[in-house]
Specification:
Elements (H helix, E strand, L loop, with lengths): L7 E5 L3 H13 L3 E5 L2 H10 L4 E5 L7 H11 L5 E5 L4 H9 L4 E4 L4 H24 L6 H29 L4 H16 L3 E6 L8 E7 L5 E2 L5 H4 L7 H7 L2 H12 L3 E3 L14 E9 L2 E10 L8 H45 L6 H15 L4 H13 L9 H4 L7 H7 L2 H10 L5 H9 L20 H15 L11 H10 L7 H12 L7
Parallel strand pairs: 1-2, 1-3, 3-4, 4-5
Antiparallel strand pairs: 6-7, 6-11, 7-8, 9-10, 10-11
Length: about 525
């Protein structure tokens, strides 16, 4: 029977069994219970009845739980919404936060856990409503200010967590992960100093990879080989103090515990140097094994680390661990892919001893020209890939044409002209490297529009393809081929220079001339 003095809970789920069990349980516990099979039914109930709390599934027909939560947040943001789902994900969690959801339970949900959650959110709702009323009262000003401060703190905390997630989700190489760890440690915790150490199970001492001292510059050690590039002996006096005292012992003990450690005030309990006033250490775990440790120190002023600082560092180390795992997987796949494609190129060049190493030389020349023209590091990376793979399409050309010692017939030349398209299609199948694919396809286009396969003219030709074109022609005429010997240096330069504005982009020819005169292009 409905009782106005009882709290009313709305349960929304498309599974009748769940609605039946939860209804019976919460009615026995003294609540009014209303149920709906989806968001549309729930919206009708919300119009007709006074609801104090809502538990809803995410995946439902007609209107899902997230859409219902958003509707409730817009129409009455005093009603707390708790999401229940069997398939939790980071994306759904973020979306629920954005829709004003107050809690997130994973199915199957324990009924006792649901009751505890209901009690908590109803209590919070009561406080929230009271706080709304206090806004109209002068005597509630102090309390509202406190609530505002707490809200601002929560917003700031969420901003910090989002910043940490964004930073580590966009890092492209492993060594940058270590650098960002120490940078952000100083930034977020306001530490005076931060270090990251790699833990080698065969060594008794942690190996420093990188550090940040707020009063000095970042000290980066060879992150590609931290064990080789560093060691327990640190060059400067303060760092020696940091690593050659009881801190090493604390680090190694912490590794075995796999737990973060907060020493808010250095009162002599731990064997820390007197210069360190407050200290934190957080392990970085990869696949259930401690890979390294992150430390932070306060050496001056009134600042002392708190549990909240330790929480942020632990969250940061957790995200860094995932980033390192993902990068390692990506780098392994990337290297294997390159190895496979380079094997194809080597197979092609092995068919013709005259063109062996041609792709490597073209790549080197392209990068030299690219640097002279001020190409970005991303553009140089594209040249590196496209240069090595620009002739991969020749794998689809018959040997009797590709290796023919004499002049090609018009029909045979038409076949040769297919290799940029074949190469671009091979790279296209990989689902990435769109710009590299365009360079490969266009490296035989001519500036005057008479090239192939698309007859592009001038700036219609991708800029990097115009660079590669000069490098490709230079190496072709400067090396022996099956049908002729390499040309003399004067004749080579004449051909390149005369091609400016017709075959080549004039600005790129100028850059080529400059680096050639400076001896930056290795002559065959």
């Amino acid at each position: 029977m409905y009782d106005e003095n009882k709290k009313t809970i709305l349960f929304v789920d498309d599974e009748e069994s769940i609605l039946g069990i939860t209804s019976e349980y919460f009615q026995r516990k003294g609540y009014n219970v209303v149920t709906a099979n989806n968001g549309i039914e729930a919206k009708k109930i919300l119009k007709e009845e006074q609801i104090d709390c809502c538990f809803t599934d995410i995946n439902m027909p007609e209107m899902n739980g997230l859409e219902l939560a958003e509707h409730i947040w817009v129409t009455d943001n005093t009603i707390p919404v708790v999401i229940m789902t069997a398939y939790p994900s980071l994306d759904n969690t973020i979306r629920t936060i954005q829709n004003g959801v107050v809690d997130f339970l994973t199915k199957p949900v324990d009924l006792n856990q649901m009751e505890v959650c209901a009690q908590r959110v109803l209590s919070q709702r009561k406080l929230f409503i009271e706080n709304l009323l206090l806004k109209k009262e002068v005597e509630g000003k102090a309390r509202l200010e406190k609530l505002n401060k707490e809200l601002l703190y929560k917003v700031d905390e969420l901003h910090t967590l989002n910043k940490i997630m964004n930073v580590f989700s966009t890092i492209g190489i492993t060594s940058d992960v270590f650098r960002r760890l120490v940078d952000m440690t100083v930034e977020i915790s306001h530490a005076d100093e931060s270090h990251f150490f790699v833990i080698d199970e065969n060594m008794e001492t942690p190996i420093e990879v990188t550090s940040y001292d707020a009063t000095k510059e970042v000290k980066n050690i060879d992150c590609n080989d931290p064990v080789k590039g560093a060691g327990p002996a640190i060059s400067n006096k303060d760092d020696k103090l940091y690593t050659e005292t009881g801190i090493n012992k604390i680090i190694m003990e912490n590794v075995s515990d796999e737990m973060p450690l907060l020493i808010s005030v250095n009162n002599g309990t731990y064997d820390l140097p007197d210069a360190i006033l407050s200290f934190m250490i957080v392990p970085l775990v990869i696949r259930d094994k401690v890979f390294g440790v992150l430390t932070a120190s306060v050496k001056k002023g009134e600042k002392r680390f708190t549990k909240n600082d330790l929480y942020f560092l632990s969250f940061m180390a957790h995200n860094a661990g995932f980033a390192i795992e993902n990068l390692a997987l990506y780098e392994n796949i990337y290297e294997n892919l390159f190895a496979t494609l380079y094997a194809f190129v080597n197979t092609i060049e092995a068919r013709d001893p005259y063109t062996r190493q041609h792709s490597n030389r073209v790549t080197s020349i392209s990068i030299v020209i690219g640097k002279e023209l001020g190409c970005t590091s991303e553009e140089l990376d594209i040249l590196n890939v496209a240069g090595h793979l620009h002739d991969i399409g020749k794998i689809g050309i018959r040997d009797d044409i590709l290796l023919k010692p004499g002049r090609l017939t018009p029909e045979e030349f038409e076949k040769i002209k297919e290799h940029p398209v074949i190469g671009a299609n091979i790279v296209k199948q990989l689902g990435q490297w769109d710009r590299e694919r365009q360079v490969i396809r266009s490296h035989h286009e001519r500036f005057d529009g008479s090239g192939y396969p698309d007859g592009l003219r001038g700036e219609e030709i991708p800029f990097l393809a115009r660079i590669l074109s000069v490098a490709d022609v230079y190496d072709a005429i400067a090396s022996d081929r099956a049908y002729r010997k390499k040309m003399e240096e004067k004749k080579i330069l004449k051909i390149i220079n005369e091609g400016a504005g017709t075959q080549f982009d004039s600005e790129i020819v100028k850059a080529f001339q400059k680096v050639y005169k400076e001896g930056k292009i290795i002559k065959i």
